[in-house]
């Protein structure tokens, strides 16, 4: 007479499913941490920039004074 | 077709074993890069990536007061000696260009001979372009130095400016900004 196999309960299946998900996520995390600590996949920066500034103060050229002096000399 | 719980359990065990095995394979593959964890003589092989970095450690030139029609520059015996200093803070040689990011004068926008730039001198052996050039806009930036080095005591380059005030430039305080772009040589 053939012996009937005992069916696993739904609860056990759910627990195993959760365990599978946890193991999968942990595995992915471990791989990420290893690759990160070794710098795998990180590329160096090939360009950077910086800024500079020029400041000055512009004042009027003293042309009017020269003209006034010239006028005065001509007047004298 | 209905799948029995027994079949599901078998499949889940297979999934867990595959996941753990895949993780070990991945980590073992990466372990090939670095060896020596369990030996008295370590052997580490690694590659340091090149990084282009620069910093204007002295980013300001102050010419003071200039009259309309006047000129001044940051080189020569009589000019202001207030250079812009750019330091190579990365670990690769750099080509450095300059362009305006804010015009200095209201009367003339870049490029103009009223606002010019040149490389003064470098601590290292890079090729320093000491000829004054009109500062350009971004479409045609000026190359100041090529192969500017990164080691200590050779990583600074000094930048000159030359300004000429147009007769029709309005009086008052002015400022112009320069963007230095540092690219790996």
Total number of strands of chain A: 1
Counted by DSSP, the helix tally of chain B is 1
Q: State the assembly state of the protein chains.
A: heterodimer
Q: How many strands, which pairing sense, and closed or not: the largest β-sheet of chain B?
A: 6 strands, antiparallel
Description:
The complex is a heterodimer of chains A (76) and B (185). By secondary structure, chain A is of the alpha+beta class. Chain A has a domain at 10-40. Helices cover 54% and strands 17% of the residues of chain A. Chain A contains two helices and one strand. The model of chain A has no long low-confidence stretch (mean pLDDT 77). Chain B has two domains: 5-44, no CATH class; 54-184, Immunoglobulin-like, CATH 2.60.40. In chain B, the strands form three sheets. In chain B, strands 3, 5, 6, 8, 10 and 12 form a six-stranded antiparallel sheet that branches. Chains A and B meet through helix 1 and strand 1 of A and helix 1, strand 3, strand 4, strand 12 and strand 13 of B. Strand 1 of chain A pairs parallel with strand 4 (60-67) of chain B.
Secondary structure topology:
The complex is a heterodimer of chains A (76) and B (185).
Chain A: H1 10-37, E1 47-59, H2 63-75
Chain B: H1 5-31, E1 34-35, E2 43-44, E3 54-58, E4 60-67, E5 71-73, E6 84-88, E7 94-102, E8 115-122, E9 127-128, E10 133-134, E11 142-148, E12 156-164, E13 172-184
Brief account:
With about 80 residues, chain A is of the alpha+beta class. In chain A, about 55% of the residues lie in helices and about 15% in strands. Chain A is rod-shaped.
